[in-house]
Known about the structure:
Helix content: 55-70%
Shape: globular
Structural class: mainly alpha
Distance between the termini: 11 Å
Strand content: under 5%
Amino acid sequence: MAILPQTRALTGAPGPAAPRLLRPRFPALRFIGPNWYATVMGTAVVASAGAALPVHLPGLRAACTAVWALAAVLLVVVLAARAGHWAAHRDQARAHLLDPAVAPFYGCLPMALLAVGGSTMVVGRDVLGHRAALSVDVVLFTAGTLTGLAAAVAIPYLMVVRHRPEPGTASPVWLLPVVAPMVSAALGPLLVPELPAGQWREALLLACYAMFGLSLLATLVMLPLIFSRLVHRGPLPLALTPTLFLVLGPLGQSTTAVNQLADVAPGAIGAPYASAFGAFAVLYGVPVMGFALLWLVLAALMVVRAARGGMTFGMTWWGFTFPVGTCVTGAAGLARHTGLTAFTWLAVALYALLVTAWAVAGLRTLRGVFSGALLAAPRAPRPGTVRTT
Length: 389
């Protein structure tokens, strides 16, 4: 039975291009792929989304600060593990870049940097102080934006000239590299007021809008391929089903971006554009949030179906976290700009879903790390769990 390349990488079937080492150094790092940055993204967004909620709950701010600290530690740990992976297992690292199932996860690195930087500015300043939090965010935003733009170009380039995926194998994972600039567009407004008034503020504001357009148009190119694959080939393999939630990422993040940009536009750009930014935030955000909710229900139904079919835990479960978190911040932004209580309760409900998903994915990941299951050599999926037609 043929195995889809996406399923091979995410369920653990070894790729044909990866040579084996008889005595590998640091064997536990050999299979630490770029998808591990999703743990950082999913944790950081719990902190920033909680701080963005348009309601005030006792103890929520302190809890978000603790989660931010955990995200910062996770970022350091995963960066060190990935550096060790490249140093000790370069053959496997190169194989990852040439594997169409794994290469898109390189988009998670810039998003992890950006997510921690943004949450540092939002809640980490309670611990570090404004000046130190700003310095951390500037460094992480700059690094995340540059690597995100590089991934948005390099990964599609590799898909065209080296990967050559089979027709009908489009996966929501393909969105990861092109969503990274949208995260920059959503978090860049945190830095706009910190710049000198005039050219500097306007330049960053419009640069964020340019990255918004870059990511949005690339997403609109890929979404029809993903839906076409679902319609013509049926549901994704069980292990890949959670990746359907990745489609929420560009939807929620773009809604967040336009609302955040509208907040800082009056101090960065003159009339009539400042007021136009505010109008666009609602005119764009409401329809897109509507589609996000439609996709959320569709994806949830597919997950329930997969769970009944025997879906087991994998790192793809972290797809339940960051994309939902972007919808929380998007709904919170719409609540802020429309004044509608409905968006407030939507943000709260989505945040409850986010925290639940994060807790489940986190506990299962810890169990897998301590048992060695997530660090061991991948295994081929069980017969019958992969759909090939």
